[in-house]
Write a structure and sequence with these properties.
The radius of gyration is 15 Å and the shape is globular. It is built from four helices and six strands, in the order ααβββαβαββ. Strands 3-2-1-6-5-4 form a six-stranded antiparallel β-sheet. By secondary structure, it is an alpha+beta fold.
């Protein structure tokens, strides 16, 4: 088990790597991919997605990362923001949200989440210039999964 001090050092190193990348003015897709990987590795989670909320009431899944083929949501635009999946809940509340078991939730997006092989997820909001921009999402194929690194929202 990683000590709290080592976890903090690892998180700071991940933030530094992202900051250095952003300062080099890369292609935005490269930044999105890097953020997903750094969040996943720093928190010791199976998979991550980065999603942006669109003005038309949908979301665009911009990037994803997983370890050992763990499930993530497919990248692409026009994903609904309806129902009680983790990301739509974040879009409404502006706060971190979770779904412990997608078998107990319904809706069109939930069906897509299940088809991707995701059983539970935690999503945290991303705020840009005082506006709710999107969310970063941790995913797993296991229902009721709790990472030791993530708070119990």
């Amino acid at each position: 088990m990683t000590s709290p001090f080592q976890a903090l050092l690892d998180e700071q190193a991940a933030l530094r790597r992202v900051a250095v990348l952003v300062a080099s003015d890369p292609d935005p897709q490269h930044v999105f991919d890097c953020v997903c990987e750094e969040v996943g590795r720093a928190l010791g989670i199976e998979g991550t997605n980065l999603t942006r909320f669109e003005d038309d009431g949908t979301q665009s899944v911009l990037a994803g990362w997983s370890v050992n083929g763990a499930p993530i949501f497919p990248v692409g635009p026009g994903v609904p923001l309806e129902g009680d999946a983790a990301v739509p809940k974040v879009s409404r509340s502006g706060r971190p949200e979770r779904v412990d078991d997608y078998a107990t939730v319904t809706g069109p997006l939930v069906e897509m989440v299940r088809e991707a092989g995701i059983a539970s997820a935690v999503a945290a909001p991303i705020w840009v210039a005082g506006r709710l921009w999107g969310a970063i999402v941790a995913t797993t194929a296991r229902p009721h999964w709790r990472s030791r690194s993530l708070p119990a929202w």
